[in-house]
């Protein structure tokens, strides 16, 4: 039997109202957990929300399709939305506050200030999506200012994003703990993503190539392979055999700072981005060398 919550979820669109609601909670001694999302929620998002509910006293989820992190040729207009379903999920979980600002609330006319994590923002995802991380950092810093969370939750699925956010938090001395949680996957291993709905049936089937080539890379590293070139070559070959897939990049990098590795020592992060038609999917795995 589902017990009805006494207080249902509070939905707020205005920054001033969010600040007031959170101030009240903070002064009553509650710790604030925050999960930023662009909505169209799936189990990946919900795993972050559940952890926040477990670990903090008051959980805030934002739903905001952030225009500054989309390039001019990207899918801002088509980005999937389903607010009703999102709210049903969040109510069911017992989230305390959902912040749903509109674009002008976050970026009023004349907005001029952006945050950049230099260098880190220009590689891999940043190279394929110029300006993306500038938009991400700007919106996340604004959210941190508005919500003042004790802990913020991000997914390992967006590995470079997590590294960049941690760097921003360190460099700017922000008083927030960043928690990065594991990637939630479909049965065949495909990482859950709001963008998976764009895939045709055939592309969806083919999309398991991302996790399959990452698993292959993991096995190679565990079997003693230390040369990123050899691993990249094998992954490229596997993706090349999948006719519906177009490789964007393979990254074999340091887990902590996303710097490319010449040689895999103990640990590495392997990330991959692949196009299926216009749909671009990313995935990654942390691999450990057994030697
Ligand atoms: P998005 O709505 O795509 O901006 O994602 C919001 C948060 O959910 C980000 O921190 C993502 O890394 C995280 N996320 C997205 N997909 C997954 C997944 N499959 N598993 C875990 N976290 C995810």
Assign a percent range to the helix content.
25-40%
Listing every helix as H and every strand as E from the N terminus to the C terminus, the arrangement reads EHEHEHEHHHEHEHHHEEE
**Ligands and ions found:** adenosine monophosphate
Give the CATH class of the largest domain.
Answer: Alpha Beta
Question: What distance separates the N and C termini?
Answer: 51 Å
Q: Provide the structure class.
A: alpha/beta
Q: How much of the sequence is in beta strands? A: 15-25%
Q: Which runs of at least 5 residues are low in confidence (pLDDT < 50)?
A: none
**What is the averaged pLDDT score?**
96
Main sheet strand line-up: 1-4-3-2-5-6
Shape: globular
- Number of H- or I-type helical stretches: 10
Number of domains: 2
CATH topology of the largest domain: Rossmann fold
What gyration radius follows from the Cα positions, in whole Å?
A: 20 Å
Strand count, sense and closure of the main sheet? 6 strands, parallel
Q: CATH architecture of the largest domain, please?
A: 3-Layer(aba) Sandwich
The strand count comes to 9
